[in-house]
Amino acid sequence: MRTFRAAPAASAARWASWSLAGVLAGGAGLATSYFLAMAMTLRDSPVLAVAELVIRLAPGALVEKAIATVGHQDKPLLVIGVLVVTGLLFAWAGRLRSRSWWQPLLVYAGLAAVGSYAVADQRGAGFVDQVPVVVGLLTWAGLLEVLTAPLRAGAPSEEATAPGVRAPDGSRRGFLLGGLLVAGVSVAVGLAGRVVGQGRRQVEQTRRLLRLADVSAPVVPRRATLDLDGLSPWETPADDFYLVHTAIVVPAIAPDDWTLRLHGMVDRELELSYRDLLARQHTEDWITLNCVSNPVGGPLIGNAWWSGIRLADLLREAGVHADADAVLQTSQDGWTCGTPLAALTDDRPAMLALAMNGRPLPIDHGFPVRTIVPGLYGYVSACKWVVDLEVTQFSRISAYWTQRGWSERGPVKLSSRIDVPREGAEVAAGTVRMGGVAWAQHVGIESVEVAVDGGGWQRAEISHPPTTDAWVQWVASARLDPGEHRVKVRCTDRHGLVQTGVERDVLPDGATGWHTVGFTVTGS
């Protein structure tokens, strides 16, 4: 009678190989997400975000007990615990892959949901912060397929499942070589992320400690606001301010490493350091910025207190040639925009901005220096991380977005938005209050009107800020019966121009049309 003793060992080795494949693929996914988090954001890696989420969700008594038991090692131990649990899930996903292709998807979905929620739960998190989670997940899933390919190829057939039958040496060798390669690259990617992250975080630490003596804290002007819950606040916090840029990795520039070159059609070329700007006279103002890609009623707009150096003063010092009509701005990352020279030299507060809402610019918003030009869309004026200003002519240049079909000049279009009520909201019957914002930077808003259910235009109350370069708030009221209703809004600027109701897409120079909202009045 024949006996086979190798079967249990062979089976254990086979399961260990599938589990190891899961751990190696998952580890590569974690390394990738860590690198991207360090390179693209100033936030924690997804693993640390999950650990912080656990702390926030844990009962206070449990947290206190943990601190009392292990002292200040509670957080490192928690991170280790998260990694251990994650590693076990990686191993499980590997074993599930030995059965079918779809079963690991359950583990992918669960970990992706937890990681995505943990990252999104951080203050000020946006779409970019989700990129490390998504790419890490795809790396994990892809490498699991690659690493398990030799195991699937070497899996014994039904005729070869007798105890003691070994998988072909070629498949085992392929798996081991692939595993070693993935492990080595994962370690290298993780170390690279640490190096990249340290540089960015040193710049962020410098920014946080920077004190700008001539920058004042924002104070909301008298008569700039109206009283209605749900209105956009007068000041948009930096964390909530819209972000649009083309940089995959946002430049992180130390102030001491930053210089600006102003050249081209000028009498005297200027080269300025950050310290040079600090020594100059500052200007400050409330300025509303909006993106040309903002649809009618969209969110790509914000109002902030900007502090910096007037561009008109620098251009006057350089001595601009009479036949120049444009300034080509270039960012540290190579992005360019062509700005009308007249908008930089007239009486508007166009500036090299150093601060936003009383603090040094956030890195994502252009630290250490960016340009601000009221009355122009950002694609022709708002150059973050600006390092070069070339005085020139429009006939000689082609900037980033104009090469892609957008118009050359980009003046902001007169527009308005409804904030209250929101689309699909339910409100009580009776007097319904409505409100929102309107803007016509560097011209100013004269009036705002609303029309309900196709009726005539009724004038709304508007705020009266001391500047034409910022938005105004508006509020209107109407007595409405229960049922479905629609309200639309339009505004008129101080030159008498009425906002058009003709609907046009954002390309090539900004959307037009009246923002309209549907809502339901309930009750009697």
From TrEMBL:
The keyword Membrane applies. Residues 249-395 form the Oxidoreductase molybdopterin-binding domain. GO terms for molecular function: heme binding; molybdopterin cofactor binding; sulfite oxidase activity. Keywords: Membrane, Transmembrane, Transmembrane helix. Pfam families: Oxidored_molyb (PF00174). The chain crosses the membrane at residues 15-37, 77-95, 101-119, 131-155, 175-197. This is DMSO/TMAO reductase YedYZ molybdopterin-dependent catalytic subunit. The lineage of its organism: Bacteria, Bacillati, Actinomycetota, Actinomycetes, Propionibacteriales.
